[in-house]
Amino acid sequence: MNVSSKLFIPKLYCSVVGHQYRITKKVTNHIKEYTCSCCGKEVTNDAKGVLVPLTPKLKFIHLGLEQVIIKRRRTKRSKMKIVA
Ligand SMILES: [Zn+2]
Fold first, then answer.
1. 27: Cβ–Cβ under 8 A, 6 or more apart, which residues?
2. What is the 54 CA–ligand 1 centroid distance (Å)?
3. Ligand 1 center from residue 28 Cα (angstroms)
4. What is the residue range of 76's domain?
5. What are residue 51's DSSP bridge partners?
6. 68 alpha carbon to ligand 1 midpoint, in Å?
7. Distance 56 CA to ligand 1 centre (A)
8. I need a labelling partner for 56 at 20 to 30 A (CA). Which of 2, 32, 64, 78 fits?
């Protein structure tokens, strides 16, 4: 079996049966990244909840979102320590 047939068979299977998406990253409660366990295709959900291909630009946006969320959690925790 050569390399091209290894890549072709999962894509053929997915085109017949459909992708088997698993959540690989939970960015927010509404935004998640999914990867097909069969062919490795990466998708994410957009603002309307529709699955769209995960582009490098979207990955970069998700990283930025994660950093904002982490900073928010840190500031909330530090405020709670001051109050308590
Ligand atoms: Zn697939």
1. 33, 44, 62, 65, 66
2. 13
3. 24
4. 3-83
5. 45
6. 31
7. 19
8. 2
Give, in degrees to the nearest 5, the angle at Cα 71 between 66 and 76: 125
Tens of pLDDT along the chain (84 residues) come to 444 455 678 888 899 999 999 999 999 888 999 999 999 999 999 888 899 999 999 999 999 999 999 999 888 888 777 665
Centre of ligand 1 to C-alpha 57, Å, is 21
Cα distances from 82 to residues 11, 30, 35, 77, 79, in angstroms, run: 55, 31, 41, 9, 5
Number of domains in the chain: 1
Residue 33 CB neighbour total at 10 angstroms: 19
pTM over 0.85: no
Q: Which residues of 12-30 are buried (b: 16+ CB within 10 A; e: fewer)?
A: eebeeeebebeeeeebeee
Ion ligand 1 neighbours (CB, 5 A) are 14, 19, 36, 38-39, 41
